[in-house]
Amino acid sequence: METSGGIQASLPGRYAMALFELARDAKTIDKVEASLALVRAALDQSVDFKTLTTSPLIARGAATRAVAAVAKKLKLDVTTSKFLGVLADNRRLAQLPAIIRAFRQLAANFRGETSAEVTSAHPLSDDQVAALKQSLRQRIGREVSVDLSVDPSLLGGLVVRIGSQMIDSSIKTRLNTLAHAMKG
Fold first, then answer.
1. Which of 41, 74, 106, 138 is 20 to 30 A from 52, comparing alpha carbons?
2. Taking a C-beta distance cutoff of 8 angstroms, is the pair 132, 124 a contact?
């Protein structure tokens, strides 16, 4: 399988590739991707869950039990639930955001799509996401899957990363540019 961007070269990439191959063989790529989206949302919304995944003070067994409970509460598919258990056992939960990004890229490549990382100042509505996908599709010439995240420090606008390209229309960047220009 073609892995653009050297996904396999990184630790999160190797974990993502292993999960992707399991999902591909079981024909559950969409289910795993949906479960990972729930995990990503939980990481963004729950300080406790984020602490669980990043704190070195939480014992391995406690982390494994906690992740199993979270997986059950989120109603994750079996493959993703077991995968989270493996990450907890191997003390790799801190790599979860990067693993999710790499998995999404692998899944998008598998479907013939280009993946884009979109950071906005505020959560985007479904209509805004659809319009953004349409705009990116016209610009790139192929289907685009978007990985959405929110960064309030942008103040407004978007930052879109597609491969090595970056489109930054954030107010934060515009203000910084203006401040730099005014300094002379």
1. 106
2. yes
* Topology (CATH) of 8-106: Peroxidase; domain 1 (1.10.520)
Over residues 144-166, the pLDDT tens digits come to 888 888 888 998 889 999 888 89
CATH 1.10.520.20 residue ranges of the chain are 8-106
Report how far apart, in Å, the C-alpha atoms of 66 and of each of 49, 87, 141, 155 are: 9, 12, 43, 35
Question: How many other CB atoms sit within 10 Å of the CB of residue 49?
Answer: 20
Task: Note whether 4 and 108 are within 8 A (CB).
Answer: no
Sort 1 into a burial class: Cβ within 10 Å, 0-12 / 13-18 / 19+. Answer: exposed
Token code pair at residue 107: 């899944």
> What one-character-per-residue DSSP string does 21-33 give?
HHHHHTT-HHHHH
Task: Report, in angstroms and rounded to the nearest whole number, the Rg of the chain calculated over CA atoms.
Answer: 18
